[in-house]
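Entry 0007
Protein: Heavy metal transport/detoxification domain protein
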Amino acid sequence: MNTNRESTEVMSGEAKMRKRIINIALVLAVVALMVFLAFHVKIKRPVQEVAVLKTIGMTCGSCAGKIEKALMRLPGTAGVEVDVEGGWVLVGYQSTSAKPDTFAAAVNNEGFRSWLMEKMPIAEFKKVAGRDFGSKAVKSSYCGNGGCGSNRN
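Output (C-alpha cells):
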C-alpha cells in the first residue's frame, strides 16, 4: 500500500512543479509584454497651441513625411499636419516645453524654405478651422521638381 501512496505523492509533486513552471512562464510573458509596450507605445501628448508655417518646396507625401519626422523629434511637439498642395505645415505643441521659433528651422534643415506665420491656442484653431487638430489626412502624390528637399538655398 505504500507504493500507491508514494505514487500519489510523486504525481502531486509533479503536478505542483508543472503549475509552478506554467506560473513562471506566464509571469515572464507578462513582463516581456510590458517591456515591449514601454518602448513601443507612445502616449499622445495634448495639443495646447498650434503653429502655422508657410513652407515652399514640398512636392509629395514623402516630403510631408520628412517634415513630420523632423518636427516630431523636437521637444514638446504633439502632432504635425502637412498640406503639400497649399504649402502649409501645422504643428500642434505643448506651450510649456516647445519653442515655435525652432519649427521653421527644423523644416529648413530638411531642405525646404519655411517660416512661422502665426501661433494660436488650440481653442482658436478649432474655431478658425472648424475641426480638431490632427483630424486632417495628409495627401500623397508623386515627387516632382527634382525630389524632396531639393530646393536648398
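Curator remark: The first helix runs from residue 2 to 40. The first strand starts at residue 49 and ends at 56.
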